[in-house]
Amino acid sequence: MAKVADTPENMQKCICGGCPSHDQCMKDKKQGLFCAVGKTDCELAKNGCICGACPVASEHKLDKMYYCEIGAAE
């Protein structure tokens, strides 16, 4: 597992916006790429997680879910 860089390239690959747990609060704050930037400050309702299907997670061999809750990959 490698640390994920907070770059425009990684943000373009990020699929957080399509996650069922990515709510209006996160959209309003333009939050995403949680595996790089850390957890959300919005109240999180777990409605499913798609981290396992994310190209950023795959490229960095990330094996956890809900980075929006647990914070950035180390």
Write the layout of secondary structure elements.
Elements: H1 8-13, H2 24-28, H3 34-37, H4 55-59, H5 67-70
Task: Write up this protein.
Helices cover 32% and strands 0% of the residues. It is mainly α. It starts with 7 loop residues before the first helix and ends with a helix.
Descriptors:
74 residues; mainly alpha
Which class do the helix and strand fractions yield?
A: mainly alpha
Mean pLDDT comes to 96
Instruction: Please mark out the parts with pLDDT under 50 across 5 or more consecutive residues, or reply none.
Output: none
Order of helices and strands: HHHHH
Strand content: under 5%
Number of helices: 5
C-alpha-based Rg, rounded: 11 Å
The main β sheet shows up as:
none
Please tell me the total number of domains.
Answer: 1
* C-alpha geometry: globular
Q: Tell me roughly what share of residues is in helical segments.
A: 25-40%
Distance between the termini: 7 Å
Beta strands, count:
0
